[in-house]
Amino acid sequence: MLTNHWEQTATGIWRLTIREPEGITPLTWMGVTPKDEVLQQMPQVEPPLAWDRIQLEEAGRNFMLSFPLNPTEKLYGTGLQLLRMNQRGRTRYLRVNSDPKQDTGETHAPVPFYVSDQGYGVWVDTSRIVTMHLGSSLKQEDTRLEEIRDRNTDKGWKATPVASRVEIQIPAEGAVVYLFGGPTLSDVVARYNLMCGGGVLPPKWGLGFWHRVPTLYSDQQVLDEAEQFRLHDIPCDVIGLEPGWHSHSYPVTYEWEKSRFPDPASFVDELAHKGFRVNLWEHPYVSPQSEMYADLQPLSGTHTVWGGLAPDYSLPEAAALYKKQHEEQHIQIGVSGYKLDECDGSELTNNSWMFPAHAMFPSGLDGEQMRQMYGLMFQKMTADLFRSQNRRTYGLVRASNGAASTMPYVLYSDLYDHKQFIRGICSSSFSGLLWTPEVRRARNAEDWVRRMQTVCFSPMAMLNAWGDGTKPWSFPEVEGTVRHYIKLRMKLLPYLYTAFAVYREQGIPPFRAMPFVMTPAEIAGAEAKLAANEQQHLNTTDGAYGKKKAREWDDQYMVGDALLVAPLVEGETEREVLLPAGIWYGLETGERYTGGCVIRVQAGLEHIPVFVKSGSILPMMSALSHVPAAGTPTAIELVHFGTEPGTARLYEDDGETFDYEQGKCSWFNLAVTVDQDGNYTGAWTGDNDQSSSYVGVTWRFAQTRLLMNEQR
Ligand code: GAL
Question: Glycoside hydrolase family 31 TIM barrel domain: which residues (predicted)?
Fold first, then answer.
């Protein structure tokens, strides 16, 4: 008997169990504790949809679960989606795949979780591929005959009339489905993240600049290149090693190659003394040359990849072997983390590599499930390893799924379209994921500097020179601008770190797409003002702005509460920006804007348009060459913008361990007031005795732009 009975599991969260799903799922695998105390403090909301409008029925061997849609509703999420942000009207085939070149829904990190701009969300927790028809399917009973038009004669003909429901194909064995209430879209995502344990708080050094060196580099080459960063006065915290550090790779051994790295411990140590952490590239497939091969063989799947074993890490024995090897050979000598590559798989003709869906694993999982879960397995195993040492890690992963918000990992891709890379920052924010628009190579200095500007305002500021050997100074004509933005990122570190602390505690992502901060009505209102302006423009000058298509504003985003980033790509010198209501300032231009409308801004190569809200207080530090070690006294500057009073919070802890979970952390309240004579006063309150390294606090009031000392 199929029951469509939803039970409330937390404030604003309801659950439906279809059949009796067996085996692991993203949520059960991650084993996280929901942040119930925080959820309880969120608004009490009624179920967002009428239960009798949610239908569950058998459909062949699967089940179909359907939810009502209103005609203009927009749907976001479904994981990292590089090709579009609003998924309304699309069928999403949510399979892990490293080549999301077509807009099918397949991606490095598919998450069967969609969020409506009407303030609710639906997540299917399963290890199987889910197909979501997000308003792309029309049942006979819903088809309104009067909407069917004749293509021969009607220019307004559309392929599909507007569908009035979402249909989700639920796997044959069943699944657990969650419905999240709002009232706002931000609340929906926060509830999802909180149920999955909250957001991740990276170590502070993880938010510095990252550089990955070319393959086959030796220890000396790495040390020399690291030195170059200091000589060029370009901050850098993490050096990533690419293939070549393993004794064999493709498939890998996880053991150091002796001729290039004769003494890995001293190498890691030497870099540490110079303020660099080491991150190691690896992939899942175990080489016959690996010391673990024989032990892992019986614990692996029926199929190999690149000739290497694909171990079944859902088995504790297999996970224990992997962990022991990594702990002894990497973590104990000071390695800071991993880049978990190629756990996603590809079927491209020239480069097909992945076990098939029919592969079988000793635990009983099949290839489909293992592929959907592999990225999560590696994230969890490695994160646990560092946690057991009371050290935080931060790294990269190329596959993920649901329930990943606590994981200290950032997604990346071999694709390289800059606009898609910006969209990735927006789309990942709906699903508890982080994404880096990594820089690799560039067509010219303009492309280079635009990409560098974007990446400096992203969850991980990284140059991945594995194949091209580029350096931040590769285009000397723009080196000054590149240095400026890497330094600006360092300066903003206390602000960024606080945004991540909010993610950890309240589930609100540090990088947020625009629907997090503007309702559909506010967006429509702002767009309507643009239309009026354009009308004027049309009458007076040219018709360039005449025809507009609907914009999704998937090329701009918020960083924390105060900053709005609107990157430009090669070939652009101006763009439209959707500005939320209020007064805003160009962070570096000082220009004043009234929001609640769409503005047009120009920015030469030396600038990325970033806006700061009036009344904001940005906590900033100096542009040091790297993040100082825990406990190092650090001067802090509190920069207040505009003429309005304002408040902000600042988070601080040791930046490296999990001691904050035992209360060793501080939240400071910052407040700026203005008296009748226009004098500003800043107040800093909070439990100052708790492990804060911030000293020498200085205030700057009523700023309209950020002044940096460095020459460009
Ligand atoms: C790719 C990865 C690149 C680089 C390369 C090394 O799979 O996406 O960033 O690590 O492997 O072979």
Answer: 201-499
